[in-house]
């Protein structure tokens, strides 16, 4: 599965949201699995979108054919668009499906990992972070993806911001020490995204 992450700064909120509804046209696309997104909790004008495709081949075919027609409705409504593609490595919790209806927030973490630490980082994700997140009340499902250049994405869906906040407060610092995150990661960024139900396809 291919995971697409788009982050942009919105300059015309009403126009952007109107254009967002046009992405319902994705539903007929071969290989399309789902899309959702919303607004950054910390930066009010920043929007995030997450799209899921069966494979890179299906995604490339869509980009060549239909993408520009669907995207035209949002022209001029945003700036500073950043698009990244990640190959699915494994699920966070089991049975990931690209559904957004039962989730309230998405936590996205974007890591650049030191070359000699990729194996350790991946192992810690599987053995330390995944079980901790999977065992947290309110954590629904998630995905761990990799891109060229030792870039990784950890996407987790939560049924409420309160539950995610509890997990952060109670466990993250302890887990980070156990996983030796500072030794593995050269740079880390991320956001909490409040999902907009009308953006779900």
| Strand line-up across the major sheet | 1-3-2-8-5-7-6-4
By DSSP (H or I, 4+ residues per run), the number of helices equals 6
Q: Strand percentage, roughly? A: 35-45%
Q: How many E-type strands? A: 8
Backbone structural class: alpha+beta
The rounded Rg comes to 17 Å
Overall pLDDT, averaged?
A: 95
InterPro entries: Dimeric_a/b-barrel, DUF4937
Protein name: YdbC family protein
Pfam families: DUF4937
Domain DUF4937: 2-86
What does this structure look like?
There is one protein chain. The protein is of the alpha+beta class and 201 residues long. The protein has six helices and eight strands. It has an eight-stranded antiparallel beta barrel. A hairpin with a 3-residue loop joins strand 6 and strand 7. The longest helix is centred in the last third of the chain and has 18 residues, at 161-178. The two termini are 17 Å apart. 29% of the residues are buried. The mean pLDDT is 95.
Summarize the structure.
By secondary structure, this protein is an alpha+beta fold.
Write the layout of secondary structure elements.
Layout: E1 2-10, H1 13-20, E2 32-40, E3 46-53, H2 56-65, H3 67-71, E4 78-92, E5 105-113, H4 118-134, E6 139-147, E7 151-158, H5 161-178, H6 181-184, E8 185-195
Helix pairs in contact: 4-5
Which key terms come to mind for this protein?
201 residues; alpha+beta; 8 strands; eight-stranded antiparallel barrel; single chain
């Amino acid at each position: 599965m291919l995971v697409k992450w788009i982050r942009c700064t919105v300059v015309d909120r009403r126009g952007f949201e109107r254009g967002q509804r046009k992405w319902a046209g994705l539903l007929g696309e071969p290989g399309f699995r789902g899309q959702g997104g919303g607004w950054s909790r910390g930066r009010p004008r920043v929007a995030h979108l997450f799209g899921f495709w069966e494979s890179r081949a299906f995604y490339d075919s869509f980009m060549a054919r239909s993408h520009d027609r669907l995207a035209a409705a949002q022209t001029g409504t945003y700036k500073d668009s950043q698009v990244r593609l990640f190959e699915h490595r494994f699920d966070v919790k089991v049975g990931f499906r690209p559904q957004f209806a039962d989730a309230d927030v998405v936590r996205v973490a974007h890591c650049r990992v030191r070359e000699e630490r990729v194996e350790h980082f991946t192992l810690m994700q599987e053995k330390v972070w995944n079980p901790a997140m999977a065992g947290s009340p309110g954590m629904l499902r998630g995905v761990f993806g990799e891109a060229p250049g030792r870039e990784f994405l950890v996407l987790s869906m939560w049924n409420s911001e309160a539950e995610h906040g509890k997990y952060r407060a109670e466990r993250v610092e302890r887990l980070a020490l156990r996983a030796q995150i500072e030794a593995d990661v050269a740079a880390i960024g991320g956001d909490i995204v409040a999902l907009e139900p009308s953006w779900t396809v």
